[in-house]
Amino acid sequence: MIHDSSSIQKRRSDNFLFFTLNSYIQSRMHGVFSFISNVFKTVNEYKNYKDKIEFYKKRIQQLEIVTQNIQSLRQENVRLKEQLNFYSSSSSDFISAEIIYLNYSNISTLMAINKGFNDGIEKDMIAVAYQDGFSGLVGKVVKVYSNTAKILPLTNYENFVSARIQSSRFIGLIEGNGYGKKLEMNYVNRLAEKDLKIGDSIVTAGFSEYPVGIYIGKITNFHILDYNSLLKIEVEPAIVLDKLEYVFLVKNNKEIGE
Question: What does pTM read for this prediction?
Answer without folding.
Answer: 0.64
